[in-house]
Amino acid sequence: MSPRGRRERAAALLEIAAEVVACRKCPRLVEWREAAAAAPPRRYAGQTYWARPLPGFGDPDARVLIVGLAPAAHGGNRTGRIFTGDRSGDFLFSALYRTGFANQPTSEHRDDGLELSGAYVAAVNRCPPPGNKPTPLERETCLPYLVRELETLELVRAIVPLGAFAWDGALRAAAALGHRTKPRPAFGHRNEAEVGAWTLLGAFHPSQQNTFTGKLTPEMLDEVFSRARELGEG
């Protein structure tokens, strides 16, 4: 099958997005995301929450795919865009701006003018899980969306999983498309692994636990995305 053009990829991604947004396959996660929207913290009182699963976001011609764990209950679940409206997203999109993948350093809401060039951001799970811990069944139920996005994004050459859970999810998505690696490559910051047509490039997750303690610094994340650009263009 010949590669699709940008317009066809964009249409296919919109189709996947519509299915993601309508998904109610995991009762525990549906209940959790809606409960978070019904009882927001004081700083978000009066705001209308998205409170639905989150599709991926970015450039249909992306050569770099960034994979997170799941949306935050009062971040993406509130704003309706992956990695948007929380400290992790602030850290991530600042790095994408500095490395030339984003047109602005902030991501505050769906209509803030943010555009990505050469990158696409997705997640293993599309609903916020309690304690940031999806069950194995919830992971497997949601993973086909990532598989389809990866299959559609035919120009991707570098996958940047943010954290060990995303690293595992990216490997599972690649395996679903017929690409398995033995022995299974281990996650680590700046670890690289060749899997099919892609190079996995690990990065610590930009959670406050990592960024506030200095485990992940802006310079460290910039190095990852600079290397991802090299891999994507290689």
Relevant CATH superfamily: Uracil-DNA glycosylase-like domain
Question: What is the second-level CATH architecture?
Answer: 3-Layer(aba) Sandwich
Report the mean per-residue pLDDT as an integer.
96
| Total count of strands | 6
Rg from Cα: 17 Å
The CATH class assignment is Alpha Beta
* Total tally of structural domains: 1
Going across the biggest sheet, name each strand in turn.
Answer: 1-3-2-4-6-5
- Helix content range: 40-55%
- Decide which structural class fits the backbone: alpha/beta
Low-confidence stretches: none
3D shape: globular
Number of helices: 8
Question: What are the main properties of this structure?
Answer:
234 residues; alpha/beta; Uracil-DNA Glycosylase, subunit E; 8 helices; globular
What would you note in describing this structure?
The chain is α/β, with parallel strands linked by helices and 234 residues long. The protein has one domain (6-233): Uracil-DNA glycosylase-like domain (Uracil-DNA Glycosylase, subunit E, 3-Layer(aba) Sandwich), CATH 3.40.470. Helices cover 40% and strands 10% of the residues. It is built from 8 helices and 6 strands, in the order H-H-E-E-H-H-E-H-E-H-E-E-H-H. The chain has helices at residues 6-21, 27-38, 76-79, 87-98, 136-152, 164-176, 208-211, 218-233, and strands at residues 57-58, 64-68, 119-123, 158-161, 192-195, 198-201. Strands 1-3-2-4-6-5 form a 6-stranded mixed sheet, with helices on both faces. Strand 5 and strand 6 form a beta hairpin. Helix 1 (6-21) runs antiparallel to helix 5 (136-152). The longest helix has 17 residues, at 136-152. The chain is globular. 48% of the residues are buried.
